[in-house]
Write a structure and sequence with these properties.
Structural class: alpha+beta
Number of helices: 1
Oligomer: single chain
Low-confidence stretches: none
Helix content: 25-40%
Shape: elongated
Distance between the termini: 89 Å
Order of helices and strands: HEEEEEEEEE
Radius of gyration: 28 Å
Number of strands: 9
Length: about 170
């Protein structure tokens, strides 16, 4: 004679359709809220990285000018378009920018953001001060789709010190 099991079957073997639907609904709500915030985070980090790259290149040029005891140029690759990339050149001693005679030190790739308010080029003296232009400058780097305070301003004062700060996209 066959014996039957007297232990009752429990329902812990899997998910019910209702539990699965609730989990999918919660996941959809989290994704709806999280994806736009994640896009903002990516855009903000990209703007920060690009601004820091430009800031680093100014610091590098200043450091090299003092180290070499020579003037250093920082210039966009195409006229007045810093977004297309830029380069650092060691002045040939005449104090005038000439890409044919000034020695290329380093070249930087194009940016994804838009640079505005930028001078034609910068000249850092052998003492590390900003020689050209003769006044302090403030580049503005704006990422595409800029929202809130994602824009960055890179300032270079007459002493050659450079800094970066967040500013409103409407500035």
């Amino acid at each position: 004679m066959a014996t039957q099991s007297t232990t009752p079957r429990t329902h812990g073997d899997g998910f019910t359709l209702l539990e699965l639907m609730v989990a999918i609904a919660i996941l959809a709500i989290i994704a709806t809220v999280g994806v736009p915030a994640f896009n903002n985070l990516i855009r903000d980090n990209s703007a920060k990285a690009e601004a820091n790259l430009l800031l680093h290149s100014i610091h590098l040029a200043r450091s090299e000018a003092v180290k070499r005891g020579a003037a250093i140029w920082i210039s966009p690759l195409t006229a007045n378009n810093w977004s297309s990339g830029w380069e650092i050149r060691i002045d040939d001693g005449n104090g005038a920018f000439n890409s044919a005679t000034d020695t290329l030190f380093k070249r930087f790739d194009p940016l994804r953001g838009t640079v505005s308010n930028a001078p034609a080029r910068l000249l850092i003296s052998a003492q590390g001060t900003l020689t050209s232009p003769s006044t302090a400058v403030a580049f503005k780097l704006k990422p595409s789709g800029c929202q809130n305070n994602e824009q960055r301003q890179i300032s270079v004062d007459r002493s050659g010190r450079a800094s970066v700060q967040r500013i409103s996209c409407s500035s």
